[in-house]
Amino acid sequence: MIKDKFTATWVSHSSISDFLACPRAYFLNNVYRDRKTGHKISLMNAPMALGQAVHAVIESLSIIPVDRRFDESLIAKFEKAWLNVSGKKGGFSSEEQENRYRRRGEEMLRRVMEHPGPLKHLAVKIKQDLPYYWISEEDNIILCGKIDWLEYLPETNSVHIIDFKTSKGEEHHDSLQLPIYHLLVANCQVRPATKASYWYLERNNVAVEQVLPDLKEAHEKVLSVAKEIQLARKLNRFVCPHGLCRACRPLERIIKGEGEFVGVNDFGQDVYVLVNLEETAEVKETKASEIL
Q: Using one digit for the tens of pLDDT, what is the confidence trace for 33-74?
């Protein structure tokens, strides 16, 4: 089969997570386009806004020379990043809620400044803006995704995969996030990964090391789900197994016109917020793994 990026099925950690949670939610997040604008839709809420702003600050450090990374206060950078999600743009239902989330972000970044750990060391940047590779040329499937941080380990000429967590919940033990990241690292740059960690910024001063997934097993698991997604797309069959679940319900509300449009994001998606979503979003945050 001739490789064609435009006809291939693209999958990522977020899209696979959507599909495993609810095929209908996958459709609404990754396939559906508004008939009027031709754009995909995206739901913004407070936990997502927090994660977006904190990640923007930390990830910006990787392109700064090691000895200058903390010349500017991360809190000052955070204030600038927060402007992009302030008010309705971040899905905040009140000034009190926004202030509460902003304080959480500031505390996370103070923790990073006081305990920078791997952020004081050399980092590896994958050259692609969106790292991707053909997980199966035969099936015309591409795996893609961005990794938060790759710490360079000079003693072994390898890398340490680090994912920053801003949510309250822990990543589930059977999550495909690290398997996907390990596959991307192995296929999108030259150095092997010899270590992987989650850094729960709200409560840990250090990154918590995880078991590095086996590449062969990771390939089989991820490709298996990717083929299910590809089949669903071919059949155009995306049914919620529960009729209407926590994953697809908010998106269905947007389709029905209950959402408030707040702008177009950097990916060309129409961004919406929902009134009275604060409690739903915060409950979900304690149960789900990582929002971004």
A: 999 999 999 999 999 999 999 999 999 999 999 999 999 999
Structure confidence by residue, pLDDT tens digits, 246-261:
999 999 999 999 999 9
Residue 15 structure tokens = 């899209």
φ, ψ of residue 272 to 5 degrees: the values are -125, 155
pLDDT over 60 at 170, yes or no: yes
And the tokens for 101?
């989330």
**Beta-strand relationship, 260-264 and 270-273:** antiparallel
- Give dist(CA 207, CA 188) in Å, integer: 24
Tell me the pairing of strands 41-43 and 270-273: parallel
The candidate with the shortest Cα–Cα distance to 292, out of 258, 263, 265, is 265
| DSSP per-residue string spanning 245-277 | -TTTHHHHHHHTT-SEEEEE-TTSPEEEE-TT-
Spatial separation of the C-alpha atoms in residues 128 and 137, rounded to whole Å: 19
Enumerate the H helices of 60-142 as residue ranges.
74-82, 95-114
End-to-end CA distance of the chain: 34
91 touches 98 (CB < 8 A): no
Fold held by 9-287: Lambda Exonuclease; Chain A (3.90.320)
CA 145 to the chain's CA centroid: 8
Domain regions of the chain by residue span:
9-287
Tokens of 143: 């795996």
